[in-house]
Amino acid sequence: MKALIKPIEYFKKETFESEKEKLFSEVWNFVGFTSDFTELNDFVVSDVSGVPVVVQNLKGKIRAFKNVCSHRHSLIQTEKKGNRPLMCPYHGWAYNDKGIPFGIPKKPFFNFTKEELECLKLQEYSIDICGSLVFLKVKEGNITLRDYLGEIYTQIEEMSNNFGKLIDLNQIEIDCNWKIVVENTLESYHVALIHSETFQKLGAEGLNFTFNKDHSIWDAPVLVKENEGKQAKVHKSFQERDYKIDGYKHLIIFPNILISSTYGISFNLSHIIPISEEKTLFKSYVFTTKKQDTSESIIEKVYEQSLIDFNRKVFDEDKVICEEVQKGVRYSSYDGELSEEEQRVLFFQQKYKIYLG
User: Under CATH, which architecture does the 28-138 domain have?
Assistant: First the structure.
C-alpha cells in the first residue's frame, strides 16, 4: 500500500500552517484532566491551533477563553498551570466567568457602559468532558465530543475514569514533525529492531485493529498473563479494580492523543503537540489504576519505578529513530510503502488527507 502523506508534508512550513486551520481548529483537542480543575481558579494554558487558550475553573465550571487581554493584549495567565483569578498581570483587568471585564482599576477613567463591557468579552471556546479528560474545540460546529469520538467514547470514558495515581510525567522535545511521532506509535513493525530490550519483551502482537470515525484501536495479547509467575505477586494489590483487560490495548484519539493500558493495571496517555514543522513536544503521563486500598507496599513502589523506567526507555528509543526519519524525508525520492502491520498508519493518513483536502 502506498503512503498518502508525501515526504514534503513532513517539513513544509505551508503544510504546518494549513494543519492549524484545517485540522486542529476543526477537531476536539485534549487540554487537561478534570483533576487539573478541582479548585476555584485552577487553570491550564494551552496553544490550540496556534491560538493561546486558558482553561479555568470559574465559579465551579470549566470554561475556556482566548488568553489575551482585551485592554492592551497581554497574555492573562502566564504560567503553564496554576491557581489565580482570571486577571491580566499588566494593568489588573479582571474577568468574570463569562469572560467579561468586571474589575478595572480606575474604572471611572474608562467610563464603560454595561454594553461596552460586554463587547470587550474574551473570545470563548467550547469545552466538553469524556471521563476524566477535558477537550476544547476552537471552531464552533454541530459535532459534539460524543459524536466526534463515536463508538470509542465509552472505552475512553471507562479507561480514563480508572486513571489512579499519576506516577510520571515525561516531557521530551523531539526534532521531527508531529505526524512522524504519531505514525511511529501506530505500528509495531519497528518494535523488533528499535525496542528489542523493552517493548518487544511484552510480546504484544497481532492485527486485531478496530477503526471508528477518525480513530483506531489495537487489542493485543501479551506473552505473560496478568497473574502468571512473578506477575502474581506484583499485581496482587490491584485485583480489586473496576477496569480489566486480558492483554494490551492502544488507541488513538485522532489526531494526536494516544492512550494505552496493560491488563488495565497501568495506563499511558501521550499528547503529541506540534511546535513547528520540524519540532514536537511529546508529553507522556503514566498512571496506575484506581484501587480501593490506598496504602502502598514496597513491591508496588518497585513496580511503579519499573513502569517509569520502561516507558522512558521506550520513548527515548522512539525519539532517536523519529529524528532519523525527519532527516531522511527531506531527501526521499519515494512516497513510502505500508504493510498490513501498518494499517493504522494508513487509516491515520486517510483521515488526515480528508481534513487537509
Answer: 3-layer Sandwich (2.102)
